[in-house]
């Protein structure tokens, strides 16, 4: 075996659907797969489009603990969700860590900048994803393992 074939085999993904089905949608690449799934490398025959390969520059996140990040945000003014009073802070920004609502913050722009600075200074791992949704008033942080990046 060659290095290229070994690398291709290790980065293979499989869609758990019957090979003899004639459905076209599971075999096609979605627009969100751009840069994550190789559009050219797929087998011929019945498995065409059901077996896909990760792109060369794509990797899977290892993950990091979320507790230090939550403590960091509590020390910077985040109010934990158990103590949140919606009538007192009706326009507060919700903060989610790995999909779990952990708290709210009154000044999300300042908090986002502080979290960005800690990631830039490598106190947070570089693979931690930060998303600020201004319209929905949410700040989402993902540090879990298994995310394709």
Automatic annotation (TrEMBL):
It is an enzyme of class 2 (transferase). Signal peptide: none annotated. Keywords: DNA-directed RNA polymerase, Nucleotidyltransferase, Transcription, Transferase. InterPro entries: DNA-dir_RNA_pol_su2, RNA_pol_Rpb2_3, RNA_pol_Rpb2_4. Its EC number is 2.7.7.6. Pfam families: RNA_pol_Rpb2_3, RNA_pol_Rpb2_4. SUPFAM superfamilies: beta and beta-prime subunits of DNA dependent RNA-polymerase. GO terms for molecular function: DNA binding; DNA-directed RNA polymerase activity; ribonucleoside binding. It comes from the Eukaryota. One of its GO terms (cellular component) is DNA-directed RNA polymerase complex. This is DNA-directed RNA polymerase. It comes from Trichoderma asperellum (Filamentous fungus). The gene is rbp2.
